[in-house]
Amino acid sequence: MNKNNVQKSVLPSEQVQEVMRNIPGGLIRWGITVVALIVLVLLIGAWFFKYPDIIKAEVTVNMEQSPAVLKARSTGKLVALLVTNQTLVEANTPLAVIENPADYNDMLWLDACLTNLQIDAEGVKLGLSQLSDTVLQLGSLQESYTRMVASMEDFDRFQTVEYHKRKIQLKEDQIRARKLHLLEMMEQRRLLKAQLTNAEATYKRDSALFVKGVVSEEDLDASKTNRLKVLQSLSALNASIKEAEVETTQIRENVLDLNQDDREQESQYKQSLSQAFQQLKAQLKEWQQTYLISSPIKGTVNLMGNWSLNQNVIEGETVFTIMPTGASTPIGKALVPSTGSGKVSPGQTVQVHFDNYPDKEFGFVKGMVRSLSEVPLKDGYFVAEIVFPEGLTTNYAFPIPAQGTLSGFADIITEDVRLLKRIIMPVTRFSKKHF
If you placed Cys at 334, which of 125, 156, 384, 392 could pair as Cys (CB 3.0 to 4.6 Å)? Predict the structure, then answer.
């Protein structure tokens, strides 16, 4: 029984071997060719077929100019409501005033005056014409305001009196007078030198004649005396000229000192006025930040409640919201994980899916990477800035309202990589690691 079974199993094996030995060569070549063609087609397909990686990131989208939420910075009554609901206002427009010791009209008027005030002679004089005769109720700013006005008056008085400039003018007049006097003395010296020449010639002639006995001793003494008198006058005149020159130099030094004193005092007055001005401006700014609610942007006023005069507001309570006018550009900030962040570059396509608008119903919004931060945040994430050239319209043609903050996740579509390269890269990495 077993012997028959062995014979039956051996017989087909021998037949198969016989067939294998007799396979035609052409069939083998065709088989190899077909396999080679299949491998070639796969390689060509792997070369042409390419697809990108997708980097997922959390994203937050805000408008480039978001609505401005204005909250009360102190607790008190609303003593002034300067606008109504849905009013279009410019930037820095006062909207409301919270109760405080100062008169808000005086504070706003003072702010306008200080904005236009120039700290120079003409500007201070113009400022005094507005401020000096005006009684203002400024609360805690009253002392600083009084100090600034006093500094303005001191500076204006210094500029008006011109004490140093007047003294300098007098000194310069003295210098001019001394120059004229010096010229006169120079002319006198020229004449005296001519007289001395004549006196010396006369004395020399008389001396020669005296030796010959022609001129008496009295005449010779007279010639000598005349010569000495001229020499004495010339010496005295030279001394006067030297003295006048020294005095002129001293006056010039006095002029330099007066100019220096004038500049120093003017600088002191200006510095004192500037300090008083800056202190008052700082206190006024603090008052505005505490009691005055102003619009930081141009837009439409929305009253956040039924506010009325003398109604109490609490610090931190929202009073107004300013909706910016005109089209506002949405900007997205995506947190890209450090793993794979090197694949992200500007210009890549981004598909943004918002939490409030499920993509199965509303679709996704197409954006583009505008920039990527060079340094990661403390938690290791890089920040990618996303722009939306086509706005916030989804691929289902649904326009997402551009208001407030939108959050969700982004699919950043990186550069396409060929399938063949993806197959070769692990092999290359393995070979470099182990060989």
Answer: 384
